[in-house]
Specification:
This protein is an alpha+beta fold. It has three domains: about 25-70, no CATH class; about 80-165, no CATH class; about 185-240 and about 245-275, no CATH class. About 40% of the residues lie in helices and about 15% in strands. The model has no long low-confidence stretch (mean pLDDT about 85).
């Protein structure tokens, strides 16, 4: 992918002035800070109290201070760059930038070969991804079709496989069985295993950074989750050996950052191996006293 959209619409329809937008925002802050809202989830209430300085009245009425919202908004970047799998800039999400892509989960399709309407199949997803990969005005890709020739429990995974095999553009995916409670890769592997086995999913595509991949594979294999590694975010640098110039011998922020990340991963993998050994020992007959 080499085509980053550069043309922007110079005119736009605007229904509200800056002043009216500010009034709506102020009213929303008044509601959450003075009136409050019901948060029935105990863990969510705890996070809001400890992390945002919220207060709880009664059993579950939570009030979030205005300054907490302003502080949270200050951490949001004004522009989010999105890259394709080749490492090229594909979209810059922010401001009034607009981007276009395909839809998802069409139940039927008009077959251009038979000129008849029929149910969508997995090959339709693959063909659409291949076509859109070559269209410069399509910035991201979704499945475009729901495959009726695939068992429902495997449809999302198979759509991803078909898309990733036919395009390098950014993809928007629908996911089933999302595990969103984990704080670490180890916890994610531990909790994902039962979910995957319940849905009869025997092998998963494991996507993470190349540096983190060895540790992630260790964790998932420990919990009996077969994976196919799909590393991203490779870090490159000068080839080892004789330096090209004197500057290659000087310390740099980039090299320090990479070294810190590498040490973090080495220590993390060692810790995972310690946990695996401890878990194996505890599971042996007679262990634990």
């Amino acid at each position: 992918m080499t085509d980053l959209p550069t043309s922007q619409l110079e005119s736009r329809l605007r229904m509200l002035s800056d002043e009216k937008c500010r009034m709506i925002y102020d009213a929303a802050l008044t509601i959450i800070s003075e009136m409050g809202m019901t948060v029935p989830h105990a863990e969510a209430r705890e996070i809001l109290v400890k992390g945002a300085g919220a207060t709880v009245e009664g059993e579950d009425l939570v009030k979030i201070p205005r300054e907490a919202v302003d502080a949270a908004r200050a951490t949001v970047p004004s522009m989010i760059p999105v890259y394709d799998r080749g490492g090229e800039l594909a979209m810059e999400l922010g401001g009034y930038n607009s981007y276009f892509g395909t839809g998802s989960d069409l139940m039927s399709i008009y077959d251009f070969e038979t000129r008849e309407r029929r149910l969508s199949v997995l090959d339709d997803t693959a063909r659409m991804a291949h076509l859109c990969d070559g269209l410069p005005n399509i910035d991201f890709i979704m499945s475009a079709a729901h495959p009726h020739d695939i068992e429902a429990y495997a449809s999302y995974l198979e759509c991803f496989r078909a898309m990733v095999s036919n395009t390098t553009k950014p993809m928007v995916m629908t996911a089933a069985g999302v595990e969103d409670r984990s704080l670490t890769t180890w916890e994610n592997a531990e909790r994902s295993g039962p979910m995957l086995r319940e849905d009869h999913i025997g092998k998963v595509l494991l996507v993470t950074s190349a540096g983190h991949m060895p540790r992630a594979v260790d964790a998932f294999e420990h919990f009996r989750v077969p994976v196919a590694a799909a590393p991203t975010g490779f870090v490159s640098g000068p080839s080892p050996g004789v330096p090209d110039s004197l500057s290659d011998l000087l310390p740099s922020i980039g090299a320090l950052t990479n070294s810190t990340y590498a040490i973090h991963e080495y220590l993390g993998r060692a810790w995972y191996q310690v946990r695996e050994t401890a878990a194996d020992t505890d599971s042996q007959p007679g262990a634990g006293g």
